[in-house]
Amino acid sequence: MEDIRSASGEQELVTRDQAAQSDQHHPIRNQIRGVGYFSRIGPGIVTGAADDDPSGIGTYSQIGATQGYRSLWVAPVLLPFAFAIQEACARIALVTGEGLARVIKRRFPAPVLYLMVALVAIANTVNIAADLSSMAAVIRMFIPASQIVVVVTVALIVSIAEILIPYHRYAKVLRWLCLSLLSYVIVLFVADVNWALVWNGLTSISITWSKTDLTALIALAGTTISPYLFFWQAAEEMEEGLHAPDISQTHVKAMRGDVLAGMFSGVFVMFAIMTTSAATLFETGITNITSPEQAAAALRPIAGDLAGLLFALGILGTGLLAVPVLAGSTAYAVSEAFGWRESLERKPSQAKQFYAVIAVSMAIALLLNLLGINPMQSLVLAAIINGLTAPILMFVIWRISRDKQLLGQWHAPWWSSLLVGLGAIAMTALPVLWLFAS
What we know:
By secondary structure, the chain is mostly helical. It has helices at about 15-20, 35-40, 45-50, 55-65, 75-95, 100-105, 110-140, 145-165, 165-175, 180-190, 195-205, 210-225, 225-240, 250-280, 290-305, 305-340, 350-370, 375-400, 405, 415-435, and strands at about 5, 15.
């Protein structure tokens, strides 16, 4: 029986049987209205915000700059699929009291588990390298310093904070960093947006049988539905669980509301960035945006210094949020696969291998920057790996979430099975269609 945390000063663990005497898994979800709501939001909002990392911002900016408003319809289409897969991961963790990799380890052959974990670890590390590069470039827009010096400094700050600060405190920092997403909402209203074209882009599906359009669709889907979010969602359900898993109907509804709020915020920010880029960059003929910091710089003379500043600060804030999530999800996946102790709530001496994975992941990402790897090449590589991993992992989660023996009455409802299954099929089909497109 897996251990979960007690509230003792040493953060020692107690068995699930002992913890089952408690009746709450997420006390912060007891109440979802009233004063102090922000302090009570659960893992869903952090996961949704981490979805909009600097690499994602670069992807959204590029597509908005090259295609204008005509790809906005992708945002509302992706939302239900993103919600369904994250809800399934959260529900599996709530019911089993285990992380995603541990459940896969028990239900699937070892090669499946190790392949998934290896691909996720590689993609996450490459993504961290690109995010660190983008964050450093944004900082250098305001502070004259060497790119390498800034990258090293940011990497050290993030690593030390994630390793040394207990999770119950670190999670509060992550939640406050979610506010950085508001910068893109503000930019949306600072820019001169043609709302009639926005409505048309949202309500009219516009896609051609071309590699260009299919590439954009694959990039948007892969950025929004990323494997590292699956592992992080399940892991955060466990990290926040200072009490026994609460699988009451009330709690499951609260969990779904939390996950929906998180994924809605992530998808809405995608919409906001694409709209802003279409209204400013596309309309003025600036269609070659190769990085998020370039998008921020390009916005300043068009939409004003405020818009450029907010866009840049948003990149920095989401980077500080996403990089720990990327490194943390890698550590959870690897540690669960090999049966190591895992928890951001434990001290480094209590989970040496877990924290070693975080350190190694950050070190490799830093090394890639020191070697001068092109950030956009990093994003392309990470996107390809995510594109290969996501649909396979979605099929695995679809199978687990329907397992009545494992989940009992909390197995997947029909709408979850439908959305996760269709999402997996669609993400498998898109690369195949790309091969035959003109």
